[in-house]
Amino acid sequence: MRAQFVLSEIGVGLRRNLTMTFAVIVSVALSLGLFGASLLMRDQVSTMKGYWYDKVNVSIFFCNKNDADSGANCAKGAATQQQKDDIKAELGRLPIVQKVTYESSDQAYKHYKEQFGDTPVAGLVTPDQLPESYRVKLKDPTKFTVIKSAFSERPGVMEVQDQRDTVEPLFNLLNGMNIAALVVMGLMLVVALMLIVNTVRVSAFSRRRETGIMRLVGASSFYIQMPFILEAAIAGLLGAAFACVLIVGGKYVLVNNWLAKKIQVINFIGWDSVVTVLPLVLLIGLLMPALAAFFALRKYLKV
């Protein structure tokens, strides 16, 4: 009987405040959709970092005959074979070095042509203008400074370059977008909480006669509050379910059927990451409105 009464009160409350309940569902859906997207974007950035940082190298470029004015290290002209051999031997003794690959000027020019193809820039460079280099694969890419400090001032070395510098701006952009999404999500969450609190208070006010009678017959505070809390929880759960639909749809349409086909060099996150996020979204969507309603009603429905 009690359960039937609580369910009937929930139905009455949802029907009386249909417009505000719909606003709560939409705001919760948008805020939790942004929350889930932010979590997935964070995982995507971490995946991309692991993928690209594992592929980038540290490049030690040697002076050639055209680099006499490139700095003190190149003042004596092109790097000698002895200087190159000494550097390679020292690299081989460093525990952080995984692999050292030599790239000649001709090989560098070939890679340059592959990169720029038939663009006008491709014809501005000749093979003898591109320096020889050692491509150093590190066991830990974050140890780049060890290589730079050890070899950047060596005679015959024009420059020590970390290829992470070319991809770092992309990761900074993605992190910035993630932070922006979290800020918008926070604002939407505040709006959702305010709507939940106002909806519960309006519902409690519209049923003040019923709650007054329940007080007189000795009903507990929790029993009186239960219909209002469940109303908020149901609205929040519907919003969370809609947020899950948005997340799954975004993954399927935006990532799988568009980005993955347009940008094939990126290893996008899989469905396992999405499945991990969805239960958290549903749990927050259920508990957040229920707790907000509980604390909003404490001073209105005390026995």
From TrEMBL:
It is a multi-pass membrane protein. Keywords: Cell cycle, Cell division, Cell membrane, Membrane, Transmembrane, Transmembrane helix. The chain crosses the membrane at residues 21-41, 179-200, 221-254, 274-297. Its main location: membrane. Residues 56-160 form the FtsX extracellular domain. It is found in: Cell membrane. Residues 183-299 form the ABC3 transporter permease C-terminal domain. GO terms for cellular component: plasma membrane. InterPro entries: ABC3_permease_C, FtsX, FtsX_actino, FtsX_ECD. One of its GO terms (biological process) is cell division. The keyword Cell division applies. Forms a membrane-associated complex with FtsE. Belongs to the ABC-4 integral membrane protein family. FtsX subfamily. Part of the ABC transporter FtsEX involved in cellular division. This is Cell division protein FtsX. It comes from Streptomyces glebosus.
